[in-house]
Design a protein that fits this description.
CATH architecture: 2-Layer Sandwich
CATH superfamily: HD domain like
CATH class: Alpha Beta
Shape: globular
Structural class: alpha+beta
Number of helices: 4
Radius of gyration: 16 Å
Helix content: 25-40%
Number of strands: 3
CATH topology: Alpha-Beta Plaits
Strand content: 25-35%
Mean pLDDT: 84
Number of domains: 1
Largest sheet: 3 strands, antiparallel
Strand order of the largest sheet: 1-3-2
């Protein structure tokens, strides 16, 4: 189980396809991971209160979701190596 105390951030991206590729690589190599998704448009109340007036005007739809992928600290180096070799 990956917890706040035993994890390290591997990747932060806004690209759904890229995060899917990273997850596939990690799964194929039996590396546990956790994905935290943040909807950048539906922010907490103080920030999103202004959205009631503006809607989503001016928001890049490709930047709406932020994906953070975490792995166990002891798997971090192996995971970095795997994803850096993905295009080779």
């Amino acid at each position: 189980m990956i917890t706040l105390l035993n994890r390290r951030e591997l990747v932060v991206t806004y690209d759904m396809k890229y995060q899917g590729e990273i997850r596939d690589i990690l799964s194929q190599n039996h590396i546990d991971y956790k994905v935290v998704t943040d909807n950048r448009v539906d922010a907490p109340v103080p920030v999103s209160a202004s959205r009631a007036y503006t809607g989503s005007m001016g928001v890049n739809s490709q930047m709406q979701y932020e994906y953070k992928i975490y792995v166990r600290k002891e798997n971090y180096d192996a995971a970095c190596s795997l994803i850096s070799n993905r295009n080779r």
